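Table 4 source record.
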Amino acid sequence: MPPPRTREKALRHRLAELRGPEVPAKALDARALAALAANPGCRRRAILDGAGVNKAVLADALGSPSVFGQSQFAFVRGNAFEAKVKADGGTELLRLAYEKLDRAAEPPADARVPDLTAQGPRGRTARTELALREATEAPGAWTLLDHPMLALEVAGSPAFLEPDAVVVHPDGSWTVVEIKSFPMLDGAADPAKVGAAARQAAVYVLALERVAARLDPAPRVRHRILLVCPKDFSNLPTASAVDVRKQRAVTARQLDRLTRIEEIADTLPEGTCFSPELPAERLTQAVEAVPATYAPECLSACELAFHCRDRSRAQDAVTRLGRPVRAELGGLTTVGDVLAAARGEAGDPDDPAVAALRRAAALRAEALETAALLEVAPCP
């Protein structure tokens, strides 16, 4: 077996070939990792994300443009709010961290904000780890790391992640900070948006735990993150402590289940390439060479969702009905199979899924018959 460095170099070369010549890699961020962890069985997304393929550009080239993503207005508004939160050396951000997470500590004053500038993502990752080590070994003061860089290995490929901020408490513990531009009304925000932020923050927590494990003694990575949002309808920041233990556990388990990128790449035909410069027919063949696991939830998390949905419909697959339905149908993989089983034309009667379908079909027929009788019955 070749040494790890040689294998890593060979993998990077292989992924560059899949991405296409002269096509820059798209960084894998925490939002993409959270979405990938939510659908670990999708080998298509795993290889495309691992190779750094820009799925939005790929979807356009396939003729299924994506509407997934953040609007330019929301992006600008979010950046402006983040700058306001971090102004004056992060005074307001640290005040919120003290009030919501650590009232037993000394109030933040003269907090340290180390310079994390370095060349390239690997350099920034090393500089972040050094800053965390220095802050932890010199407790007693608050430290704010503005846009640190963390590394997390996913399916055998490194991903570089950039949280909004990480706070080191006076006791040496670490907290992830998520800054979002959606409002917090009367102390509460949209549960769906908070859930998405929690899943994203859980990825950062996992990455921080990898860093902490390399220190002796290992500092505590807090599982309550600080979510900072605008207060009501103003631009004033407020915050809430969000427990991400559940999201962290689920994300860790799902990421561990991902098939290694090398294994997926080895199954692809020779010459497979996902470059958007290729003819549409060849590009479609390349994408279809990797199996996908489509579900309606993909529409809010993946740029290729419309393409995969069209393919799922063309194949009459039951996955387009949702994961809960798919889980109940056992070995029935197409809508045609399901209807045939319900009508008694196919399927093993001893199969619980088939028996349930036939029972449901009988109840439906009985209900329709009763409704028809009621319609023709004379009025009293």
